Amino acid sequence: MPDTAKLILGEKSYDLPVITGTENEKAIDITSLRNSTGYITMDSGFMNTGAAVSNITYLDGELGILRYRGIPIEQLAEQSTFVETAYLLIYGTLPNKEELGKWSQALTENSYIHEDMKHFFDGYPSTAHPMAILSSMVSTLSIHNSWALKPNLNEAEKYRMFVLLLAKMRTIAAYSYKKSIGEPYIYPTDNFSYCANFMNMMFAHPSRHYEVNETLVKALNLIFVLHADHEQNCSTSTVRLVGSSKSNLFATISAGIGALWGPLHGGANQEVIEMLEQIRDDGGNVKKWVEKAKDKDSGFRLYGFGHRVYKNFDPRANIIKKSANEVLDALGIEDPLLEIAKKLEEAALSDQYFIDKKLYPNVDFYSGIILKAMGIPVNMFTVMFAIGRLPGWLAHWKEMVEAPDFKINRPRQIYHGPAINNYIPLDLRK
Ligand code: CMC
């Protein structure tokens, strides 16, 4: 394979370096292109643009491969926990016993949010979308942690920020739910695991007995592990972009939450359940909805289907489908939405339109069924995605700010507006 690519522009030819990844992925390095030729490259939607050389996650969309730091997602889903996976993503290796103990302890100790912050929750109406509360509250954390607002953090300060965000985002999410249903906030409990603590803060009540269900804790761990990173997706790219201005990490993560909220990204898990409910209320005729998704004029898409990079299957979807079946069986729940989801999947996968366009269920297609079985309200689904994706955002931010070629992210454009124009005073305008 050549280690340079040749670009011919008119009479001249230019050699551009080729970069090769661990799994033999190839990129043409165009960094010097503008200086040597005056040209930029154009790739609206970043369909074919590499924004980083990264050591974090490997993904092969054709073969359905996903690995965090080299470890297949199937192994992590089976054997790891979210807390351990977060460390792996951020620090590059699985933690030893001592590192894991320290990491878990720090997460527990950082679970509490400043008492003053509880008053901020009171200002939100109970109808506020929890993603709005989450992004604002993560940004608000900065006012109690002014030490972290400087542009460069040392190793110890980064560690402190990572555990702070991982621990507190979960508490903020649970408080926003309690606020929305008018129940008292439940404090984190030191002797619970990360996921058990979250479940307890969500569903315990001072005057009711609540016992954390281990099947649900296991399923929640799985969902978080599967969402923990997905290389240069929209929200992670947002985190890299915002972080590249040396904005503080609270503001940077808050921006990532905003990007995740959209229905084409993390917001799809909410859309999936709402779509399945609509299909159920409409009589359950899945073929009719598949036809509607194919009709461009309908403005309707099958949420939870299709992916920018997966063109064969999404390995996370396979794992999560199996887990959805297991969770519902273990809880003795018969959810008609699961049956509709399976029928819809079958109808879409055997339809020529979906086959031709290589559209398969993605991670969001079945995750909502499990979240619903846990009692998580639908408008909290994207918040769950955000908690899960946080380690990935932190890992990418760390990798970017520590890279020797660190630069503010600033794309270029081709201007297509009017050529030079004169200002017309208001009374002379038509
Ligand atoms: N239902 C019907 N048609 C679809 C769908 C769908 N879900 N997804 C893509 N298509 C069609 C699309 O109309 C287009 O057709 P044509 O080539 O005739 O114009 C073609 O397939 C390619 O789609 P695209 O939108 O150009 O592909 P993309 O790579 O830009 O977008 C996507 C990927 C995920 C945004 C898109 O598949 C989609 O909107 N899916 C539904 C939303 C969803 O489930 N999002 C969650 C993604 S997974 C979680 C995450 O990582 O965020």
Task: Explain what you see.
By secondary structure, this protein is mainly α. The protein has a domain at 4-50: Single Sheet (Rubrerythrin, domain 2). It is 51% helix and 7% strand. The protein has 18 helices and six strands. The protein has helices spanning 33-37, 73-79, 82-91, 97-109, 115-122, 130-140, 155-181, 194-203, 214-227, 234-243, 249-260, 268-281, 286-294, 315-331, 336-349, 352-356, 364-374, 381-402; strands spanning 4-9, 12-20, 26-28, 57-60, 65-68, 71-72. The chain has a three-stranded antiparallel β-sheet with strand order 1-2-3. A three-stranded antiparallel β-sheet has the order 4-5-6. A hairpin with a 4-residue loop joins strand 4 and strand 5. It is globular. The model has no long low-confidence stretch (mean pLDDT 94). It binds carboxymethyl coenzyme *A.
Strand order of the largest sheet: 1-2-3
In DSSP terms (H or I, runs of 4 or more residues), the helix count works out at 18
Order of helices and strands: EEEHEEEHHHHHHHHHHHHHHHHH
* Mean pLDDT score: 94
CATH level-two architecture of the domain at 4-50: Single Sheet
- What is the fold named in CATH at topology level of the domain at 4-50? Rubrerythrin, domain 2
**Termini, distance in Å?**
62 Å
The shape is globular
Low-confidence segments, given as residue ranges, are none
Q: Give the DSSP E fraction (strand runs of 2 or more residues).
A: 5-15%
Q: Which ligands, by name, code or SMILES, are bound?
A: carboxymethyl coenzyme *A
The CATH class label of the domain at 4-50 is: Mainly Beta
